[in-house]
Each structure stands twice: as C-alpha cells, then as structure tokens.
Amino acid sequence: MNIVIFGPPGAGKGTQSKFIENEYNLYQLSTGELLRKEISNKTKLGSEISSIINSGELVSDHIVSDLIEKFIANKDYKGRLIFDGYPRSLNQAKNLDILLNKYEQKIDIVLKLSVSLETVKKRISERLTQENRADDSEEIAIKRYKTYEKSTEPVLNFYEKSKLLKVVNGEAKITEINDEIRGLINAIKGWL
Ligand code: AMP
After folding, report:
1. What region, left, alpha or beta, does residue 165 occupy, with left being phi > 0 and alpha being psi -120 to 50 degrees?
2. Sheet of 3-6: strands edge to edge?
C-alpha cells in the first residue's frame, strides 16, 4: 500500500513514518530529507535550494517531482511508499496522481496529523536541541507553519473528496498516535 502522511512541520510525520515503515515493510520517502541530503552533499541542486529551505518556503514543484519520480519508478518500492512531506500543494497532489498512474500505482490512505501552532513551536524548540536542522528556529517554524496553512491545507479537500483522508490527533502521545494509525492501516489492509 502507498500512504501519504500529512501535517504541519513538527506534527510528527517523520516519527510516525519511521514506525509504519518498520511495521509494514514500507519505504519512507521524505522529500525534506532528500532535499537536505542534496545540501549536505554540496550538489549543484543543493546550493540552489538551501536558501529557499532555510527561509521556510517551498522548493519548485519540478525539482521535487523529479526526486520522487525516481522512487515511484523503482520496482523495489512499488506499492510500498510512504510519502512524507509530499504533496505540499494542490499542484503537487495532482502531479502525484499522474506519476502514480504512470507507474500503475495509487494512494491507499492519506493520514493527517492534526496539531496546533503552539504544539509546533514547542516541538520545534525541542528538536533544535536534538537535531541540527538549519531550518529549525522558532521564526522559521512559524513561517513554515504559515506556508503549510496557505499552500498545503487546501490539498486536504482534494483527498477528502476521494475519501482517502483520515485525521489523527497529533497532540496525543507518540505511542497513542501510532496505535491509532495502525488501526486505520489495518482496517484498510483488510479490504485491499
Ligand atoms: P520537511 O522536512 O518535510 O519539513 O521539509 C523541509 C523543507 O524542504 C520544507 O520547508 C521545504 O522548503 C522543502 N520541501 C520539502 N518537501 C517539499 C515539497 N513537497 N515541495 C516543496 N518543498 C518541499
């Protein structure tokens, strides 16, 4: 099954993706991680995108689309992808449908982790001390949250219409969120 995991920065998408990756033998495709890798490997693309990422804005659609197509096209990942951080706009959601169709795949479930801006700020400040992400300051966190509200939230309507969307309380404990997600995935697996 292919899963989209959705939510503002700091919602716990990465943490929950890692859990379900292990539990269901899936592959976590994090566009943020792929982009950060380009920056740390000092590639040409990395130098083009670092200022955009560090300002909390979105990287161009075509850049991210090219990155994810490589994974969608790869037979090893067929029907095993967790899209973490993609799509982030309506255009990207439509593009994802086109790409999946091209490789005879589809999305089976869209999980939305709901959290407030207050929680986002708190989690980002905790993450600041654990990871060394250049885009993790409170100011940029707020900018990223605003980008999410403006560009990414409209995508939810798109998935609501296709009945793929499931909303999970991202404010709960990590293990509780994981339990809820597993329940939703198992229910889907039952009739896949
Ligand atoms: P993330 O690790 O998912 O929070 O992503 C970190 C940053 O990478 C975002 O704030 C964006 O600048 C960029 N990024 C990640 N995914 C996308 C995407 N699907 N489209 C555009 N930019 C993205």
Report:
1. beta
2. 27-30, 81-84, 3-6, 109-114, 165-169
Sequence-ordered list of residues with C-beta below 8 angstroms from that of 192, at least 6 positions apart, any chain: 1, 108
**pLDDT for position 133:** 66
Dist. CA 67–CA 77, nearest whole Å: 14
Ligand 1 centroid to Cα of residue 112, in Å, is 16
Q: Hey, is 75 helix, strand or coil?
A: helix
| H or E segment and range at residue 55 | helix 44-55
Instruction: Give the chain's mean pLDDT.
Output: 92
Q: How many CB atoms lie within 10 A of CB 152?
A: 23
Confidence band of 125 (pLDDT split at 50, 70, 90): confident
Residues 153-190 pLDDT 10s: 889 999 999 889 999 999 999 999 999 999 999 998 87
Look-up of token digits 């700091």: 10
Mutate which of 88, 133, 139 for ligand 1? The one with the most ligand atoms within 8 Å of its CB, which is 88
Residue 37 amino acid letter: K
Name the closest-CA residue to atom 5, ligand 1.
32
- Running DSSP on this structure, what letter comes out for residue 19? H
CA of 140 to the centre of ligand 1 (A): 13
